[in-house]
Amino acid sequence: MTEGWRLPSPHDAPPHTDPDAACESDAHLQEAIEAFLLSRQVGNCTARTVGFYRDCLARFARFPGAALRCGDLVIQRYLTHLHASMRPVSAHAHYRALKVFFGWCVEAGLRDDTPLRSLRMKLPRVLPRVPEDEEVRKLLGACGTTVEGRRNRALVALLADSGLRISEALRLRIENVRFGERTLAVHGGKGQKDGTGFFGAETAALLRAWLAVRPGAGPEDYLFTDRQGRPLSRSTACHILHRLSRRAGLARKIGPHALRHYAATSILRQTGDLELVRQVLRHATLDMALRYAHIAAPEVSRKFRRASPLDHLRAGR
User: Fold this and answer.
1) Residue 11 bears catalytic tag
2) Structural domain of residue 177, as residue ranges?
3) How many folded domains does the chain comprise?
4) 20 to 30 Å CA-CA from 6: which of 39, 61, 223, 247?
5) How do residues 269-315 score in pLDDT, each as one tens digit?
6) Helix residue ranges, H only, the chain
7) Would you say residue 92 lies in a domain?
8) Is residue 50 part of a domain?
9) In what order do the strands lie in the sheet with 177-178?
10) Cα 36 versus chain centre, distance
11) Based on the domain organization, do 147 and 275 belong to the same domain?
12) Per-residue pLDDT for 101 more than 50?
């Protein structure tokens, strides 16, 4: 570390650079970004993941001093700037995108090393907001009895019961729903992984009620569609849930991922089984599932009161 080093401020002026050299560096950076995005597509990243990288790197490319061969000080200035303008979790997502991008640049021979080699940013421990049982009950009740209402109720039920990601639910075909086993064949999940989802008897009944009023549906058709038989988009599904939240009189809008959190915490409260939560949500490790243990702390507290070692020791006297 050099003498007199300090954390850069977002208000610091960028170092002086020659305009022609800056233009050349910007062009090289843009070319590298496009090549990197192509490599993600070839690597079977989802369109959403590629879009995430594109947005993060485009933002970095607009920052003063950003260049393919920029040093670590520019990266530190940029990340400090992000911390001043967005939530810590969002800033960490941009940090991860830069880490992957510059790591790829080294592998591709565009740089000798990465400017993030000695930089570490901890992931903030932020607990997700989880809807209460009554909120989910009201959301289901706000769906109505129209054709769209039955579809919406089936969608809400499936998300809250199975813990599917919204993209996974919207990719489901009717033939992927196995009513006899109450399982789902999930294709192209996170990381392009296939898997198995699960749902209960109540969700099965609501799915059947939706399919009963859906005209001309074949096994290969999408499970959730509009009136014209077109699959619902992610933005449409989010809009549906937000509209239902307002209709139900909820204080906050409930989105698709909040229902995934609801499924996880509800299963944990009922069973206390973190491994079951991991398998149902199809997490690679227990790390993500462990977040829900903090949310379900009241349940842990009640169980501990029944299992307190010293209370049992005293009772055995």
Assistant:
1) no
2) 133-299
3) 2
4) 61
5) 888 788 888 888 887 676 666 666 665 655 556 666 676 777 767 66
6) 19-42, 47-61, 72-85, 88-107, 133-141, 147-162, 166-170, 201-213, 234-247, 256-271, 274-281, 286-295, 297-307, 309-315
7) yes
8) yes
9) 177-178, 183-186, 195-198
10) 22
11) yes
12) yes
> Is the confidence at residue 121, as pLDDT, over 90?
no
Higher pLDDT, 114 or 287: 114
pLDDT (average), residues 140-151 = 94
Active site residue 187: no
Domain co-membership, 203 together with 245? yes
25-54 pLDDT per residue, tens: 578 999 999 999 999 999 888 888 899 999
Residue matched to tokens 């399919």? 211
User: Mean pLDDT, the chain, as a whole number?
Assistant: 84
- Catalytic residue selected from 53, 95, 262, 292: 292
Is residue 102 domain-shared with residue 163, that is, in the same domain?
no
- The answer to whether 265 touches 292, Cβ cutoff 8 Å, is yes
Q: Are residues 137 and 92 part of one domain?
A: no
| 83 and 164 together in one domain | no
In a shared domain, residues 59 and 140: no
Residue listed under structure tokens 């599932």: 289
Catalytic residue among 165, 171, 261, 291: 165
Let me know if residue 317 belongs to a domain. Answer: no
> Annotated catalytic, 257?
yes
| pTM of the predicted model over 0.90 | no
User: Annotated catalytic residue: which of 173, 187, 234, 257?
Assistant: 257
292 part of the active site: yes
The reply to whether 314 falls in a domain is no
Verify whether residue 294 is a known catalytic residue.
no
Q: Catalytic: which of 190, 242, 247, 269?
A: 190
Same domain for 172 and 274?
A: yes
Told to judge if 283 belongs to the known catalytic residues of this protein, a careful annotator would answer yes
Q: Return the CATH number at 239.
A: 1.10.443.10
